Amino acid sequence: PLVRRQRAMAHRVVTDPNLLVISKRLMTQGQIWKIPESYDKVTIFGKPEVRRSQAIALLTLYNPQLPIKATPEEIVEAYYEEASREGIRWDLAFSQALLETGFFAFGGTVIPEQNNFCGLGTTSATVRGAYFPTPKDGVRAHIQHLMAYTTDRLPKTAIIDPRYDLVHRIKKETGYATTWKQLNGKWATGSYYAEKIMNIHEQMKGMIAIMGTD
């Protein structure tokens, strides 16, 4: 069955010579990260490397019933639309959302009703952070927050990220991030933040694309 094949591919031993297996294990899962050797040069802006059907397949593999008012297809489409409009790599922005939300299972400080998919404004274990009325608004705020970190150019949509001005002002003075690696220690305080995003993205690339779909 397709799901069994997808699961096997998601957890397969990586033999591609273009991939680097980092021999650091996640303390809670004993998982070996599989990321591109040149991951530190992967830019936030650019062209995606996966199809939407692959992103849907990965999310469905881990969590087919989302606790938000959106299906896996709808949330992937929202990331595709919002990020593509700004030139940001939607596949990696979506991988970041999967990391931040635990594949939309949440379970941490942020709750599903917030439609907050990137930990926006969550500054401690007791501060839930920003709330957005719809999943699409949450996706838009996420993409706008990435732009605050990465470019002097204003978003093409009305700003709804409540921390955009603060972050954009700081980055304008200290320097913008151009790669995902540069978000380490800045977007999140934990170690290997970009590496975890890349690991999820590699799993996404391993999903079987559904023929005839993007």
Short description:
With 214 residues, the protein is mostly helical. It has seven helices and two strands.
Task: Write up what this structure looks like.
The protein is mostly helical. The protein has one domain (about 1-205). The chain has helices at about 1-10, 50-60, 70-85, 90-100, 135-150, 165-175, 195-205; strands at about 20-25, 30-35. It has a two-stranded antiparallel sheet. A hairpin with a 6-residue loop joins strand 1 and strand 2 (about 30-35). The longest helix is centred in the middle third of the chain and has 16 residues, at about 135-150. The chain is globular, with a radius of gyration of 17 Å. The two termini are about 20 Å apart. Residues about 5-30 have low confidence and may be disordered.
Please render the helix and strand layout as text.
Elements: H1 2-10, E1 19-25, E2 32-36, H2 52-62, H3 72-86, H4 90-101, H5 135-150, H6 164-174, H7 193-205
Antiparallel strand pairs: 1-2
Helix pairs in contact: 2-3, 3-4, 3-5, 4-7, 5-6
Q: Biggest β-sheet: count, sense, barrel?
A: 2 strands, antiparallel
Number of individual domains:
1
Low-confidence stretches: 5-30
Quickly give the structural class.
mainly alpha
Mean pLDDT score? 86
Which bin fits the share of residues in helices? 40-55%
SSE order = HEEHHHHHH
List keywords for this structure.
single chain; 214 residues; mainly alpha; two-stranded antiparallel ribbon; 7 helices; 2 strands; 41% helix; globular
